[in-house]
Amino acid sequence: MPKIKEIASGREIETAILPWYDPATRCWEGGNLRFSDWAGNQFTPIPDVPAPPPLQAAEELAVWRAATKVSAFQAKGALLNRGLLDEATAAATAAGGLTLLAWQTATEYDRLSTAIIALAPAIGITDAADLDELFREAALISA
Prior knowledge:
The chain is α+β, with helices and mostly antiparallel strands. It folds into 2 domains: 3-45, no CATH class; 57-139, no CATH class. The protein is built from 6 helices and 8 strands. A 4-stranded antiparallel sheet has the order 3-4-5-6, with no helix packed on it. Strands 1-2 form a two-stranded antiparallel ribbon. Strand 4 (27-30) and strand 5 (33-36) form a beta hairpin. The chain is elongated, with a radius of gyration of 27 Å.
């Protein structure tokens, strides 16, 4: 564990957080302690900084969607389990272009992929929550 040295006393103190000097307060600060730089050798707790507000449900969902990926095997397995694999293959073929290329060659699919979003309505998935559930189901599949 790193040590810091009090300027006035020369005493070493173990700390997990290295302090920094704040010229506005004329104190060395670190973690939840404020180390005074005057000859009083006082250590005073810094008032707790309020935690950021929790993410709202919509924000949490947006973060989840942005981070969620499944392998092509998992995605196609979930579609097979729902009886939608043949429909999805036909929809990708009909869409052609990059959507078809993604369907045929991608090794993983992002929840927010433009190919996924384009194919979903073509196989009867018109609700974003249903598409989310399909990705959750897919994530549970393993080879």
